[in-house]
Amino acid sequence: MFVYNFKVNGKNLFKCFFIITMILIVIIVGIVTFKIFYGASHNKNKSSCLPQSNVSTISSANYTNVLKAVHDNIDSYVGLKINFVGYVYRVSDLKENQFVLARDMIISSNRQYVVVGFLAEYENAKDFENNTWVNVTGEITKGDYHGDMPIVKVTEMKETSAPNEEYVYPPDESYIPTDGVI
Question: What is the number of helices (H) and of strands (E) in the chain?
Answer without folding.
Answer: 3, 7
